Amino acid sequence: RCRNAVASDIKKGPVEAARKNIAAYGFGNTIEARMGGGLETIGENEVDAIVIAGMGGVMIKSILQDGLSKAKHAKALILQPMNAIEVLREWLYTNGFEIYDEELADEGEKIYNVICARWTGNMEKPEPFHLYIGIRLIEKKDRLLERYLVKKVRQLDKAIHEMIRKNSSDSEILKHYEWLKNEMLYTIKGGL
Predict the structure, then answer these.
(1) H-helix or E-strand containing 107?
(2) What CA–CA distance (Å, rounded) separates 5 from 18?
(3) 51-4-72 Cα angle (round to 5)
(4) pLDDT score, position 191
(5) Of 6, 38, 110, 138, which sits with the fewest C-beta atoms within 10 Å of its C-beta?
(6) Backbone phi and psi for residue 179, each to the nearest 5 degrees, phi listed first
(7) What's the pLDDT tens digit per position in 33-79?
(8) Is the pLDDT at 170 greater than 80, yes or no?
(9) Which residues are CB-neighbours of 191 under 8 A, at least 6 positions away?
(10) Average pLDDT over every residue of 126-151
């Protein structure tokens, strides 16, 4: 499916390991490993799809912001944030990117979000809850959504109880966590 690919990393070790694996599997004519940060390793119109995976949503947002013109030219952005998903979704929506698909993938007990986006130039203002739980996941009734929501509710419960135990003075965060937990419970009870 992919005729050519560029693999990049900011550290020499991972780039060298990638080069060895590329050679070992016979993809030397198809995949090129480059060292550099973010999207700086690719030309302006060199790629159709950009995959950024295995880092936090804030970092992915920063990479896209720094390489905005390249991100806009890509036909697809495949993004797999490990945390701060809401930060990434909000940035995408407010910068004219459409989230046209989203899916959850599991590996053992871990569940990962995979966001598919493309630049349309249309700014969106989604419901606040959909920054945390993507509307595409709900619309398509993703097979892992209920399990994902239950896990998130447990994490929020833990954070809420810890804040109460420590008598936290930040009531706004506590209210936000309680709101988010209730929205997730409502979504679960709504019969995904």
Answers:
(1) strand 97-107
(2) 12
(3) 45
(4) 64
(5) 110
(6) -60, -50
(7) 999 999 999 999 899 999 999 999 999 999 999 999 999 999 999 99
(8) no
(9) none
(10) 95
Distance CA 88, CA 85 (A): 5
- Take residue 50 and report the two structure tokens written for it: 């950009």
**C-beta contacts of 68-73 below 8 A and 24+ residues apart:** 68/95, 69/44, 70/39, 70/42, 70/44, 71/39, 71/97, 71/119, 72/96, 72/119, 73/44, 73/45, 73/119
Amino acid at 88: L
Residue pair 162/176 in contact (Cβ under 8 Å)? The answer is: no
Indicate the pLDDT class of residue 17, thresholds 50, 70 and 90. Answer: very high
Residue pair 92/117 in contact (Cβ under 8 Å)? The answer is: yes
Look at residue 165 in the predicted model and tell me its pLDDT: 85
DSSP state letters, 120-132 = -S------THHHH
Task: Compute the distance between CA of residue 117 and CA of residue 97 in angstroms, rounded to an integer.
Answer: 6
> Which H/E stretch holds residue 50?
strand 49-55
Residue type, 49: A
